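Backbone shapes recur. Consider a single case.
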Amino acid sequence: MSAPRPELPTLPVTFRPTLTRVVLLSVGLAMFLVITVIALMLERLNPGERVTFIFVAALFLGVLALLSRPRVTADDTGVTVVNITRTRRLAWEEILRVNLRSGDPWVFLDLSDGTSMPALGIQPGMAKEQAIRDARSLRALAESRSATGDDTPDRRSTRAAHGRVVYSGGRRRPVRPAPPVPRLPTRGPRGLPATQGVTPSSNGRIVR
């Protein structure tokens, strides 16, 4: 018996690992404050060393803030996937399937160009149940949008009397069958056509 179909969320909706984000930002902010206070309280440090301490603390906070950046935002026209250093906009027609298998660190999107794209905004690291719910919701959205978009010109394929018609970029482009390849005449001895100057005799010998 298949699992019940999850209720579609109201668009726009954003999926992100909330608990992971809170932990990363809290640790980064706490480390920044602690290192900054220590750098200011140590009297034996010169101004250059204090600046170095504070810079290292700010760099550490920036790295953790970057790790907390991933999210997946879905709206009526498509999905925006924000990973650590890259952002990509996908139309619903480009998403074939949303996968979150056992042992996967995050969701993977199977795309229409044959590639698979990671979506770090849904990851079961610290909140497995939330990640599973988010993955199911995103999958339901992708399937519902694909179902409503099956009748669009980009997805239809029809046949006409003159050949197959495919759609590319919303325009009809007829694909006509290839013309037949002419057959070459059979060659006889010494490169002559079999029908010219060669007559088989009754005993199988060739008579000219």
In short: Residues 151-177, 195-199 have pLDDT under 50 and may be disordered. The longest strand covers residues 163-168.
